[in-house]
Fold this sequence. Notes:
Layout (H helix, E strand, L loop, with lengths): L2 H8 L3 H7 L3 E3 L2 E3 L6 H6 L2 E9 L2 E2 L2 H14 L11 H14 L7 E11 L6 E12 L8 E4 L19 H12 L4 E3 L1 E2 L2 E2 L6 E6 L2 E5 L9 H12 L3 E5 L11 E6 L3 E4 L2 E2 L2 E2 L4 H16 L2 E2 L10
Parallel strand pairs: 7-8, 7-16, 12-13
Antiparallel strand pairs: 1-2, 1-6, 3-4, 3-5, 4-18, 5-6, 9-10, 11-12, 11-14, 14-15, 16-17
Helix pairs in contact: 4-5, 7-8
Amino acid sequence: MSGHHKLGAQARSRQEREEETSPVWREGRIVEDDTSAARATRYGDGLFATLRVADGHLLDARRQAVRLLAGAALLELDPPPGWEDPEAVVRHLLEAAAALGARDGEAVLRCQWSAAPGARGYGRGRASSARVERFPVPPSRSLRVAVLDDGEVPPPALPGVKSCSALAHVLAARAAARRTAPEAVRVFGGHVAEAVSANLFWIEAGRLRTPATDLPLYPGIVRARTIEAAGTLGLSIEEGRWSPADLGRADGAALTGSVRGVERIETLAGIELAGAPELQAVADEVARARRADATPVPPGEGEDAA
């Protein structure tokens, strides 16, 4: 290995190393060398959900279960055996969380369903498989968000499904990195859509705005909770089509996602934004609602249930 490559390997972050060596829960046990995702890796033939564990509680478990099953139906992918209904999905997720030691503290779980391999080529086998991995919660950040040029990156192939075909998101992340920003808003046909891995909201003249779901975006679980929270607070909500120039009138803005919740944008397209009080109230209500119906992770094998 050359000196350049050695330095590159040494420079990898601790989180990257943890992700490379993370154990996997599969079919009731922890495995270190899992090949169940080969089909998803080769063809993107699968889907996933990312869940947050907070204070030993799994957030949005049933909503995520319903979303997984709906996405599988759109992909014509049979759920893994034993995962056929929301209650079963939640049960398996909690079992995995306990086995992966997520009962205490904070964690991120990634649940992936992969189609079974068939004959050589694109043909599928009959059964699918599930795997769940645990990752550390990402650190807090000062959120600077760039706005990409129209069509700078391609739209997702299946925007309404969290499929394993995520190359469009990878390219969007690279475009954000070129602008030295941790996130970037994607623009298609002159309209802002979503960020690399989150939905976009902003406040303008007391109204909460977000791109409409007929744009190429993935409407996430916390996006729905944010709209619900705004309704609870009596805040006017508008879903529609806006240009990047419209963002310049924002009084405050945020990204929403399952891992980070509602995250305030401090700088959008180089413009510093104040923390709009309406947006903070929505963020507080979303956090309250998520905790209110969170599901406690049960004790793992050998743990005291007390």
